[in-house]
Design brief:
The protein is mainly alpha-helical. The chain is built from 3 helices and no strands.
Length: 58
């Protein structure tokens, strides 16, 4: 049992997955912060596109 615990604690095979998950979480937080910061400008752009498409379809 002592050998099993020693081997289990020394095993680092899942470490890469944890690091990737942390990187993905940080990127997601950065994207959310950026979108929140520029939400008014993005809404204006999407409304302009919507208006252009509506007038082109008529």
């Amino acid at each position: 049992m002592k050998t099993f615990l020693k081997n289990f604690l020394a095993d680092e095979s899942g470490q890469s997955l944890t690091e990737y998950a942390l990187i993905i979480a940080l990127v997601a937080i950065a994207l959310i912060a950026t979108i929140t910061l520029f939400k008014d400008k993005l809404l204006t752009i999407f409304n302009d596109i919507n208006s252009s498409l509506s007038s082109a379809g008529s």
